[in-house]
């Protein structure tokens, strides 16, 4: 029997996914039209964008008082990557490799992940 290594980053990615999925209202397909206003475990407001297969693509977090400022550099944004057409997440990366709240939600597709 071969043992597989479990990385801390892999465990954190799974935990983030579980929290995001649990906090996401059911039946939501695009969060841009109406920002998700629930409070995450970190007490941040979130916006979530889904791809055409209804998989989480981007998650943005900011302080609740900034949630309506999509064009302001007050967001921390992560992008989810999947194993082909499956729902298996293989990695989650920060915008420009930084977890800082220095990004704009409106420009999320222009960053390097």
Portion of residues in helices?
10-25%
Query: Which H/E pattern describes the elements?
Result: HEEEE
Low-confidence stretches: 25-40
How many separate structural domains? 1
Describe the structure.
This protein has 113 residues and is an alpha+beta fold. It has one domain (8-110). The chain has one helix and four strands, in the order H-E-E-E-E. The chain has one helix at residues 8-23, and strands at residues 45-50, 56-62, 76-82, 89-94. Strands 1-2-3-4 form a four-stranded antiparallel β-sheet, with helices on one face. A hairpin with a 6-residue loop joins strand 3 (76-82) and strand 4. The longest helix is centred in the N-terminal third of the chain and has 16 residues, at 8-23. The protein is globular. The termini are far apart. 19% of the residues are buried. Residues 25-40 have low confidence and may be disordered.
Topology diagram in text:
Elements: H1 8-23, E1 45-50, E2 56-62, E3 76-82, E4 89-94
Task: Provide a compact summary of the structure.
The protein is α+β, with helices and mostly antiparallel strands. The protein has one helix and four strands; from the N terminus they run αββββ. It has one helix spanning 8-23, and strands spanning 45-50, 56-62, 76-82, 89-94.
């Amino acid at each position: 029997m071969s043992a597989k290594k479990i990385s801390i980053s892999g465990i954190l990615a799974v935990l983030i996914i579980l929290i995001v999925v649990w906090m996401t209202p059911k039946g939501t397909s695009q969060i841009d039209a109406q920002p998700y206003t629930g409070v995450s475990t970190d007490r941040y407001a979130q916006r979530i964008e889904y791809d055409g297969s209804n998989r989480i693509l981007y998650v943005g977090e900011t302080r609740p008082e900034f949630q309506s400022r999509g064009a302001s550099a007050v967001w921390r944004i992560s992008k989810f990557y999947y194993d082909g057409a499956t729902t298996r997440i293989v990695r989650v990366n920060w915008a420009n490799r930084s977890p800082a709240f220095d990004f704009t939600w409106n420009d999320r597709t222009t960053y390097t992940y």
